[in-house]
Amino acid sequence: MFLPFPNADTWLKAVLFVLGYIIWDAAYTMANVPYGTMLNIVTEDPGERTQLSVFRSIGGALGGLLPGVILPMLIWDKVTYPEEGALALWDKLADSLQGTAIKLQDLMHVPNIPNIFFDENKNDIAGKLYEVGDKVYSPLTGAQFEILRGDMVFWAALIMGIIGLACFLFMIKNITIRGNEYTQLNNEGGQKVNLIKSFGTFMKNRPAVGCTVAAMGMFIGMQSATTANTIMFATHFGQAQLSGVVMAVGFAPMFIFMPFATKLVKKYGKKEVASIGSIAGLIGAAILLIFPLCPKSAQLIVYMCGLIFFGLGLGFYNCVSWAMMGDAIDYQEWKTGKREESVVYALHSFFRKLAQGIGPAAVIAIMGTSLIGYEEKLGTIGQSVTTAENMCWLVAILYAISAVSQFVGVALIYNIDRKTLAKMNAELAERNTNAE
Predict the structure, then answer these.
(1) What's the average model confidence in pLDDT over 335-364?
(2) Distance between alpha carbon 170 and the CA centroid of its chain, in Å?
(3) Does one domain contain both 384 and 306?
(4) What DSSP designation does 411 have?
(5) Res. 185: pLDDT tops 60
(6) Is the pLDDT of residue 294 over 90?
């Protein structure tokens, strides 16, 4: 997907990227669907399922946060005034835009931008001439210029791919599946799957739908908001390099909660714990909707406070989400007498992927409308202060949509509370005993 051909035509880059994405996505699905359904054939014990869900969440969070923190530091460069002067600054900017759709001549039409390069090196922010090593500020937003190093993205993707492969091979080598339970639980073998009928059955599986709505909301927050978040930090705060660090600090409560997840679930139940977390997420979303109204000096602090509450709510849900989905698969067997774990999980994964793909694409489309005013041809350098402020509102609204979706999914739709779970497990155990 990220093969570096900076001088290739745009159509060729698009073809290579789309083909690469299709191959990656097919491989991802082939690995992820059976991986997710293994939860039910490793153990039937609710407490052990919660533990597996927690540790899967820990691995997933670390796998997402580490590149999320490190990548912005590697692929974004803060612009400082070079010793060679304004023309060298111009050349550096031209090199950074090579192979992109952004053209320097478009930036030259943005008010005050040409002054940085041609008007005696004037620093509009400080009211004096630039000196060697000074931060170069946007005369539009007051944020320091940052440029994206596209050449680093390929190597980052390659290294992450190798690490991901090593982790999967380690899991495959060390996982233990209980063969007798697999034979007993998985009665799908040899049966033809009617996708339309399976989809209809899935939509009647209320806990599976609840898990899916919550997961789609989670991806809106984790993927769509993150896409807009990077642009917001580059245009509004001038801190694209630190955007990942801020996100990590905001989601730190997730890791604080994880050691207590199993005990809390054992005492109160999965749905109950996830519902409490979704309320914390709503509080975080409310704070995030306030931060664009604050003075700019306080915005980052308020933003962090909102992220902490949102991250706490996400931690509550994320730690039990896979165990909840395992119970939803059991629920379908309980209600229909037929176990379709692969189909149920595949449809759940499909909707997750739908949110993961459509969400960021929709955000980029919204950014280009008059509501936000982001002009792609100007990159992060030529955006107006109004656009930068609009990006703050877009990020806040995306987190709010995410929090509401999680609350609706786990608190209102998902219906396997502690009492229902006990009844379901007892009746399924009795059926299996009678079948033997």
Answers:
(1) 83
(2) 25
(3) yes
(4) I
(5) no
(6) yes
Q: Does residue 4 belong to any structural domain of this protein?
A: no
Q: Are residues 69 and 91 in the same domain?
A: no
- Residues 257 and 317 grouped into a single domain: yes
**Tally of domains in the chain:** 2
Encode pLDDT of 117-168 as tens digits.
655 555 555 567 777 788 877 766 777 777 777 778 888 888 888 998 999 8
**The predicted structure's pLDDT at residue 166:** 93
Q: Do residues 300 and 415 share a domain?
A: yes
Would 94 be classed as within a structural domain?
yes
- 244 in the same domain as 125: no
In a domain, residue 139? The reply is no
For residues 183-208, average pLDDT: 72
- How many other CB atoms are there within 10 angstroms of residue 414's CB atom? 26
Whether residue 241 is found in the same domain as residue 333: yes
Q: Are residues 294 and 403 in the same domain?
A: yes
- Please list, in sequence order, all residues whose beta carbon lies within 8 angstroms of the beta carbon of residue 332, skipping any fewer than 6 positions away: 201, 205, 208, 338, 339, 340, 344
Q: Which of 412, 353, 408 is nearest to 213 (CA)?
A: 408
Helix (H, G, I), strand (E, B) or coil at 187: coil
Strands (DSSP E) found in 243-375: none
365 alpha carbon, distance to own chain's centre: 18
∠ Cα 231 235 237 (to 5°):
105
pLDDT reported for residue 123 = 57
The whole domain housing 20 covers: 10-78+150-174+195-435
Tell me the whole-structure pTM to 2 decimals.
0.71
How distant, in Å, are the alpha carbons of 176, 205, 421 from that of 201? 30, 6, 20
CATH code of the domain containing 39: 1.20.1250
Per-residue pLDDT band for 278 (boundaries 50, 70, 90) equals very high
Q: 283-288, long-range: CB within 8 Å, 24+ apart, which pairs?
A: 283/309, 283/313, 284/308, 284/309, 284/310, 284/311, 284/312, 284/313, 284/399, 284/403, 285/310, 285/396, 285/399, 285/400, 285/402, 285/403, 285/404, 286/400, 288/395, 288/396, 288/399, 288/400
In a shared domain, residues 114 and 257: no
- pLDDT at 96 (0 to 100): 66
Length of the chain as a residue count: 436
**Which pLDDT belongs to residue 381?**
74
Max avg pLDDT among 35-44, 212-221, 270-279, 335-344: 270-279
